[in-house]
Design goal:
By secondary structure, the chain is of the alpha/beta class. It is built from 8 helices and 11 strands. The radius of gyration is 28 Å and the shape is flat.
Length: 300
């Protein structure tokens, strides 16, 4: 495969990918003063002033603190997913996530690109993207449909060659669509490899079975830990309220006292559980002896 250009341009496709919605995601309110945005081909910045007469907004780049008056069309609100792993049940949801979370400075990999539609959607929106598929025919069709995009015949489980192809040696977003109905054992093995290898990457996975399983999944926490978590969240909300900075000293002391109290309660609960377990263990021989006494009487 020929080396790819550093900055990907929109694919000069024989068949254009589906069009995205016009305007910045999140509506006009997403470009308010104070919002973090990504400036096309220039990186992340924060809006620091209202629009002037020509509509441009002044931004300050997070990398070096310099400022610039940017066109709204070159700005994308920076939206971080709620979790590192997103699971989609349909192709429409999968592509919607691609358009929503892709950022101009992202280096992206799609595993299971098939005929290349999602990779083509991402190409003009990110810094670099490559779609791979294990089958020759889909990749050939993808190259014919979208000649301006990067495609490669590759096994998604063979990660080192894919890392070598990346201009940064890593990936910011990884999209996985090896089949919407692929067996969970195969899919989870693949997802696990990328989740462990690229610890900062966001993974978007399309699989109907996986999504269905997660709909019936909940994270179990003992009641004591759940109460502690709620208390921590409550304290965090109180810290974020206006006027709390003046009370940081007393609050810090109260938080320390609260944590010490939590640790004492946990220690007491663990000791109680150990005592109960020991009592049950000590009681077992006596219970066994009582059960054997009626049997001995009957035999006598």
């Amino acid at each position: 495969m020929a080396p790819a250009a550093a900055a990907a341009e929109a694919p000069a496709a024989a068949e254009a990918p589906p069009a995205a919605a016009q305007g910045p995601p999140g509506g006009a309110g997403a470009l308010a003063v104070g919002a973090t945005v990504t400036v096309k081909r220039h990186g992340r910045a924060r809006i620091i002033s209202e629009a002037r007469e020509d509509g441009r907004l002044q931004v300050r780049y997070l990398s070096d603190g310099s400022t610039y008056w940017a066109r709204p069309s070159s700005l994308r609100p920076f939206e971080q997913p709620a979790a590192r792993l997103l699971v989609c049940s349909t192709t429409r949801h999968y592509r919607d996530a691609a358009l929503r979370y892709a950022q101009p400075d992202d280096v992206v990999l799609e595993v299971g690109c098939h005929e290349g539609v999602t990779t083509a959607l991402l190409t003009p929106r990110v810094k670099w993207v490559m779609g791979v598929d294990i089958a020759d025919d889909p990749v050939a069709r993808a190259r014919a449909r979208f000649p301006g995009c990067r495609f490669r015949v590759a096994d998604g489980f063979d990660v080192p060659p894919l890392v070598a192809a990346s201009p940064t040696g890593t990936f910011d977003k990884i999209f996985i669509d090896i089949s919407g109905l692929a067996e969970l054992q195969l899919l989870l093995s693949l997802v696990g490899i990328y989740f462990r290898t690229f610890k900062q990457a966001v993974l978007v996975v399309k699989n109907k079975h996986f999504a269905h399983m997660l709909h019936h999944t909940a994270l179990y926490l003992p009641a004591t830990e759940l109460a502690h978590q709620q208390q921590r969240e409550q304290r965090q909300r109180e810290q974020e309220q206006p006027g709390q900075r003046q009370q940081q000293g007393p609050q810090r002391e109260r938080r320390q006292q609260g944590r010490q109290q939590e640790r004492r309660q946990e220690t007491q609960q663990e000791a109680q559980q150990e005592r109960e377990a020991q009592q049950q263990q000590e009681a077992q021989p006596q219970q066994e002896a009582r059960r054997q006494q009626p049997q001995a009487s009957a035999e006598g």
